[in-house]
Amino acid sequence: MPVRNDELRDALRRAASAFKAHGPDFALGGSYALWAHGGPEPVHDVDFVVAEDDVETAALTLEKVGFVVERTPEDWLFKACVGDEFVIDVLHRLNGVRVDATTLAPAEELDVLAIRMPVMPPTEVIIAKLLSLNEHHCDFAALLPGVRAVRERVDWQQVRTAVADNDFAMAFLVLSDRLGITE
Prior knowledge:
The protein is built from eight helices and nine strands. By secondary structure, it is α+β, with helices and mostly antiparallel strands. The chain has two domains: 1-120, 2-Layer Sandwich (Beta Polymerase, domain 2), CATH 3.30.460; 121-183. The protein has a five-stranded mixed sheet. A two-stranded antiparallel sheet has the order 6-7. The protein has a two-stranded antiparallel ribbon with strand order 8-9. A hairpin with a 2-residue loop joins strand 6 and strand 7. Helix 1 (3-22) crosses helix 3, helix 2 packs antiparallel against helix 5 and helix 5 runs parallel beside helix 7. The longest helix is centred in the first third of the chain and has 20 residues, at 3-22. The termini are far apart.
């Protein structure tokens, strides 16, 4: 396993343990959520999702366990790092929509790296990833391995309904249909 994955796994464990011990409610999201459901392991960062009202609690919790928190210009997340590396993104808005308890409610309790934690279901993660596609960020190749790996656990009709207004997401679904992924 590459050193980067060791660092990401360690950060994931530390952050999840801290959130479980000190709050707030959270869920593992993004590519690591897909990994927890059987997808390929990411090498970039770890995403956690918290309610927008709990941002300050989440930041304090991570600072208590040694993460350096950086507020970004983006108004939908903050970053937590170990050393010089940003390894944790804490999202409190998903594609412009405020995260609240109902956003976190579908999370499933799973064992991830020997820690029981809430993990966003594949359908919700795929929806979030597809809705983030736009003319500035449209990397289908990065999405395909994760989508292919969790395809049998995804409610494709729910995905289609949720992303119907995003032409880039719909184009991805056409490609996925033609590749036999979404059947």
